[in-house]
Amino acid sequence: MNIISELINDRFMIAAVLLFGLGFMNLLLQKNLIKKIIAFNVMDSAIFLFLASQGYINGRIAPIITNGILDSEVYINPIPSGLVLTGIVVSVSVTAFFLALTVRLYGIYKTVDFDEIMLLVDKEAE
Amino acid sequence: MLPFYYNIPAISILLCMIAGMIMPLLPNGKVALRVAMGVSAGVALLSAILMINIIPVNEYFTYMMGHFPAPWGNELSAGPLEAMIAFIFGLVMFLSLVGGSHTIFYDILPGKQKMYFTMMSMLLASLLAMTYTNDIFTGYVFIEISTIAACAIVVARDTPKTIGSTIRYLTLSLLGSGLFLIGVVLLYCITGHLLMPNIQEQVLRLVSTGLYTVPLTVVAGLLFSGVAIKSALFPFGGWLPMAHGGATTASSAVLSGLVLKGYIVMLVKIFYRVFTIDVIRDLNVTNIMFACGLAGMIYGSIEAFREEHIKRMLAHSSMAQIGYVFMGLGLDVNLGVAAAFLQIMVHAFVKPLLFLCAGRLSEVYDHEKSSYRLRGSAHKDWIAGIGFTLGAMSMVGIPLLGGFTVKYYLVTSAMMNPAKLWPALITLMISAVMNALYYIPEVIAIWTRCELCTPNPVDSNRGFDWIAAPILSAATLFFGLNGYSLIQLIQRGLALL
Question: Which structural domain, as residue segments, surrounds residue B328?
């Protein structure tokens, strides 16, 4: 019972670790460039999930003052949320750049298979 | 009221970022080049002022951005070491742009030249931010900015091959960034802070309890792995030869000379200011650094020896040189860390010198890149020939040149740690012999007259001939002749971290 309650308690952390591993391996091993980009986003989202879950405190509310309550004990930790926002901006920028490169290569070789593209590139160089 | 020089780190970073933003509004690439050169020269000048003010009094300061305290605000920190590194980054960026300007306008389409200089300015901004930051999350953000900018200056040539090598570079860089980010996040979760001194306080408290050894080892390992991938340490450097070898000359010079080092400077700063170097040694992270460094020295040298393409040969050699840096860091003695920093500084000058000279020799021979076809090219441009020879001799470790000083201090540091003495000595010896085996034939080839070769008539490159090559060559000699005082200065800087 203890193990089950611990697993439930740490569910976000477990999900984050699994998603990070999934994203990491696919970013490394996938040949399809679009799948690589999706894998990168899964990997980064896993980190954001982990960070957001660490900032969340059960029973507290979002750190936005609406009823004039200034007591910090009422709100969750806002720093991880801020970090997640910054991380998302970075992640979106990298995704856009990666997609632009993919579109460029697709325009030339009509495929998103990276191995196939590199074979064609080498053949052209010869 | 703060003294003016306290503002220099922030001004330097903002100057580069503002320059990057205004580049697309400029009339053409030539104006953008001048602005980029002006900004990098300005950063070098400002950093020199900072050095003059803080080195004599051995001062280390932190600078609160916008006067907001933690956790809302952000901090920069600077001491003699950061100032020296920032000076080198600014100066070498300026020299790479001056010396490589001809090939930039040959390789990059006119419509993309302004964006190229935007990326160069953003790259310098990110390198400076990684050097000066006192906040680990800001460090991560600038790592990502440098990833995008570095990939963009590789892909600027816009050939299918460079796009392919950029995707490989980007993929591995993102894996590195992901590992670094999860390391930063775990560290925040364990300590509750993002500023380096605050984290250090908590880390030391946790270390004294002995309860958090495994999580701290994992964090240090993740941060190291992330940086190792991005700085092309063995076995993660597969992306480097294609990316650095295929880019335009100025990009190759900046990537090999500066970008690889920016990440390592930040890692060392984190190790000193977050964990303290004694904790890092107790966690055994330095042993992994040492092993990867030694393997990289051998692997990079073997691959460089097998390479025919001159720029890819230099790129493989960079992998070996990064191995020297990690070997120094992994020796577990303070002199070894100082020797690693000296290697960072020497290589920041020597590798751009080699890339710029190789680029110029290739330019005078109809843009040939094969070592065999560059025979006799030094007779067509003797300044490039002399520069290449000097750089190659420094890499081999000829006395009076920077490369020799580094090897001397690495050997001296290895002798202070008997457990690592023999592996370090044997690998250094093998690597030095391998360096000679691929650099000396290259030097002989460029000076061997070739009757059948037909040089390409090209304009003289005054920026390269009168500014870049002489200053980079003089720096190689300077490091060779002033090793002792520089190592003392670096050790003083490290003690203040």
Answer: 291-497
